[in-house]
Write a sequence for this structure.
């Protein structure tokens, strides 16, 4: 049953065996896994069917340091941020999960082999085809990359259609054992002062009105920033908030620094690598990563980083390319309209696009090619087929290298509650965030090594003369919100244990990227879904133990 919480009588109470807070990938996967086991579930979503000014207001916050607007990097709506997700999937590397002394990282209290079966289940939830991330085994064109101890070109990303969990949640709400509340913002959790167990979730469907959700087990899956806010705001029994006895909630905030540097001209050998989007043997789009091997990262004491070929800078109309000008004009318009993700992160710079007349001239001159691309872009959206993941013309003479880099954990990168309040009376978040000089140096050195080895192997000529720009790149993208409630064996080092259960609150779990102890260099969604499957298993196992005891 889908219920608008604004219609529930003030002071009303909703009960279930499990309460899941959030309908993005984490919450939706937990809810689906439990519902299919017959568990009585209530799912609480702060937004409604759409994301508008009213929902955006409760997601606004203060950014002390350069960071994207908090209401631009999140979607408070059914399906959460999955509604605008690009679909890129990849598991974390074993290197990400293990200890790395040079980064002062103890790693994860969970190993790669432990996560693998959950990754396979997550792959199905995200509709990303086989759990296979080797180009050689995925059906890429037959080509044997040259052996290298430095550069790995066999690992890939895979793309989900992308899956939006809004439709999944509407369908799940039709189950007899699922109740879905929308327009139901959780403002705080209450807990028993003696046992630490959560006793209720307090929901504000509209200003001045509260209802409660009572359950035996709670799963906080509201996204990295919002999950941290809820725990910090749950301060009636504990002044610092739930799980925050050692001042760990909201610290160690990590994202993925993203940028483009260098110029690359592919050789014939490089073109044979098939560095664009390639349909796999199971019909999923995939793409090769350019990455340093684990041995090279350890040898040079670097963080993880994944690179790929990128098109020339679209903002400079002198390229004369109609497709690139179309791209630049489109993002310029989206920025002028301030349309969510498309006006944030690496896209924000398109607000300063100049030479609009020349761009329009490029489009007019190249109209046939632009038209063909428009048809190929629109066709799968009409037919329901797999969507080409992004605009990626690599047929020009010169390309760039785009990177997604790992950010190291720093307790000074954190979120706190400000004094300002939103329309529901919640204290807004304040973000303190930056990318360190050491991380920038590691990113720069990684890109230089990738460029050097790419050229040495004969895949193309590479000019990295502009790599120094990495030292000053803004790196403000906040779409990947990791580390804020990180996983650790002790509450002195983190907020949740190895099972994603909050230290000191036995019936409260966290599902989402906030629990990541390290960031890796790939998008977090596949790992989010894998951990959500794992949380659901823990809850189901507990329930099967408790029920016979209750009946005896």
């Amino acid at each position: 049953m889908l219920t608008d919480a604004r219609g529930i009588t003030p002071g009303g109470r909703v009960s279930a065996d499990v309460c899941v807070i959030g309908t993005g990938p984490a919450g939706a996967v937990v809810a689906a896994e439990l519902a299919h086991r017959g568990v009585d579930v209530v799912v609480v979503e702060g937004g409604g069917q759409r994301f508008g000014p009213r929902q955006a207001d409760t997601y606004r916050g203060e950014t002390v340091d350069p960071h994207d607007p908090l209401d631009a990097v999140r979607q408070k709506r059914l399906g959460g941020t999955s509604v605008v997700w690009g679909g890129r999937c990849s598991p974390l590397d074993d290197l990400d999960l293990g200890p790395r002394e040079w980064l002062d990282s103890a790693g994860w209290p969970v190993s790669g082999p432990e996560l693998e079966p959950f990754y396979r289940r997550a792959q199905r939830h995200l509709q990303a085809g086989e759990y296979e991330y080797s180009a050689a085994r995925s059906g890429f064109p037959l080509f044997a990359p040259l052996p290298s101890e430095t550069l790995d070109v066999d690992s890939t990303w895979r793309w989900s259609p992308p899956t939006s969990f809004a439709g999944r949640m509407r369908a799940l709400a039709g189950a007899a054992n699922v109740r879905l509340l929308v327009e139901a913002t959780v403002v705080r959790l209450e807990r028993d002062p003696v046992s630490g167990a959560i006793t209720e979730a307090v929901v504000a469907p509209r200003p001045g009105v509260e209802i409660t959700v009572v359950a035996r087990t709670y799963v906080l899956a509201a996204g990295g920033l919002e999950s941290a806010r809820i725990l910090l705001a749950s301060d009636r029994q504990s002044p610092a908030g739930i799980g925050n006895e050692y001042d760990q909630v909201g610290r160690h905030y990590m994202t993925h620094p993203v940028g483009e540097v260098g110029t690359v001209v592919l050789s014939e050998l490089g073109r044979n690598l098939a560095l664009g989007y390639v349909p796999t043997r199971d019909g999923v789009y995939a793409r090769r990563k350019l990455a340093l091997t684990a041995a090279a990262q350890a040898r040079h004491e670097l963080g993880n980083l994944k690179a790929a070929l990128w098109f020339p800078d679209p903002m400079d109309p002198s390229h004369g390319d109609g497709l690139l000008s179309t791209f630049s004009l489109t993002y310029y318009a989206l920025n002028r309209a301030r349309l969510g993700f498309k006006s944030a992160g690496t896209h924000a710079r398109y607000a300063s696009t100049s030479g609009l007349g020349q761009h329009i001239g490029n489009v007019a001159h190249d109209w046939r090619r632009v038209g063909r691309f428009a048809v190929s872009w629109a066709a799968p959206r009409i037919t329901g087929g797999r969507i080409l993941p992004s605009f990626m013309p690599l047929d020009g003479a010169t390309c760039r290298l785009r990177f997604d880099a790992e950010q190291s954990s720093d307790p000074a990168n954190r979120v706190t509650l400000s004094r300002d309040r939103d329309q529901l009376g919640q204290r807004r978040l304040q973000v303190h965030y930056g990318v360190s000089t050491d991380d920038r140096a590691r990113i720069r050195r990684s890109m230089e090594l990738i460029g050097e080895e790419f050229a040495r192997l004969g895949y193309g000529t590479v000019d990295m003369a502009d790599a120094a720009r990495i030292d000053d790149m803004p790196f403000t993208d906040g779409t990947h919100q990791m580390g804020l409630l990180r996983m650790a064996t002790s509450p002195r080092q983190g907020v949740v244990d190895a099972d994603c259960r909050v230290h000191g609150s036995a019936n409260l779990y966290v599902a989402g990227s906030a629990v990541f102890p390290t960031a890796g260099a790939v998008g977090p969604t596949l790992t989010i879904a894998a951990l959500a499957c794992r949380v659901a298993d823990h809850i189901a196992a507990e329930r099967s133990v408790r029920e016979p005891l209750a009946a005896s």
Notes: The longest strand covers residues 209-220. DSSP finds 13 helices and 21 strands in the chain. Confidence is low (pLDDT under 50) at residues 548-552.
